[in-house]
Amino acid sequence: MNELLLVMLAYMIGSVPTAVWISRSQFNIDIRDYGSGNAGATNTFRVLGAKWGTAVMMIDMLKGLLAVKLALLLPYYVQNDFARTNFQIGLGLAAVLGHIFPVWAEFRGGKGVATLFGLVLGISPWTAMGCVGVFLLVLFLTRFVSLSSILASLAFPVFIIIIFNVDNEAYRIFAIAVALLVILTHQKNITRLLRGSESKAPIFKYRDRRRERRMHDQF
Q1: What is d(CA 100, CA 94) in angstroms, rounded to the nearest whole number?
Q2: Could you tell me the pLDDT band of residue 211, with boundaries at 50, 70 and 90?
Q3: What integer pLDDT is reported at residue 35 of this predicted model?
Q4: 3-state secondary structure of 200
Q5: 208 in a domain, yes or no?
Q6: Labelling 104: which of 14, 39, 184, 217 has CA 20 to 30 A away?
Q7: Residue 165 falls within a domain, yes or no?
Q8: Cα–Cα distance between 115 and 111 in angstroms, integer?
Q9: Domain count within the chain
Q10: How many CA atoms lie within 13 A of 10 on its CB side?
C-alpha cells in the first residue's frame, strides 16, 4: 500500500507541466500551440529561447530525481540496494508517465527525456554524468537538442551494460527500453533531421556566425 501511494505521488510530481505553466505565465501562450506541439524542453528551446528552455529542462530533470528519491521514505528500500533500484525504476517511470500524460495539463505533455535523465541521475549519478557529456558534446557540435537527446539515450545502455557492467538484469532491460522509447518518441525529429529541416537551439549561434564569416572570408 505504501509503495502504491508513492508511485501515485511520483506520477503527480511528473505531471507538473513546467513548459505549459512557464509559457502561460511569462508569455501568455500555450507552448503546445507552437513548434512541435510538445510541452518539453526541446520545444521550449525552439519557441521561447535558451533561457526558458534551460529552466524547463532543469525543472523536468528535478521531477525525475525527486520521484526516485521517494523510495528512501520506506526503511526497507533504504537497507536493500537491489530492491531499492528496482522500486526507483518504477517510481521514475511513473514520473515520466506523468510528464507525458500530465493530469494538470489535459494529459498533453512532453516526451519525458529530461525527466528520464533525472531518474538516471537519482539512481546512477556517474552514468547520468556520462550521458550529460554525450548530450553536451553533440549539442555543442550540432545545436540539435533532439539529436543530442537521442544519442545520449543510446549511450545510456552502453554505460550500464558495457562500461559500468551493472549487475541488475531489470536495470539493464530498462536501459535498453529507454533508448528504444526515446527513438520511438523522436520519430518526427529524426525525419526532420534526415530532411535537414530540424530547428537548431538558439545557443552557440554567435560561434556559428563567426565560423560562417571565416569561411566566407577564405573564399
Answers
A1: 10
A2: low
A3: 87
A4: coil
A5: no
A6: 184
A7: yes
A8: 9
A9: 1
A10: 31
Which set of grid coordinates corresponds to residue 99? 510528464
Q: Which residues have CB under 8 Å from 113's CB, separation 6+?
A: 40, 41, 42, 149, 153, 182, 185
Mean predicted confidence (pLDDT) in 190-200: 91
Residue 204 has pLDDT above 70, yes or no: no
178 located within any domain: yes
Query: Are the CB atoms for 154 and 179 separated by under 8 Å?
Result: yes
Look up residue 167 and give its amino acid.
Answer: D
What is the signed CA dihedral for 117, 120, 124, 128, rounded to 10 degrees?
A: -20
- Residue type, position 127, single letter: T
The answer to whether position 155 is within a domain reads: yes
What CA–CA distance (Å, rounded) separates 93 from 89? 6
Given a contact cutoff of 8 angstroms between Cβ atoms, the answer to whether 121 and 58 are in contact is no
What does the alpha-carbon distance between residue 156 and residue 59 come to, in Å, rounded to a whole number? 21
- Mean pLDDT, to the nearest integer, of 91-102? 95
* DSSP track, 67-126: HHHGGGGSHHHHH-HHHHHHHHHHHHHHHHHHHHS-TTTTT-----HHHHHHHHHHH-HH
Place of cell 520545444: 43
Q: What is the pTM of this model?
A: 0.83
Which residue range(s) make up the domain with 111?
2-201
pLDDT interval class at 164 (50, 70, 90): very high
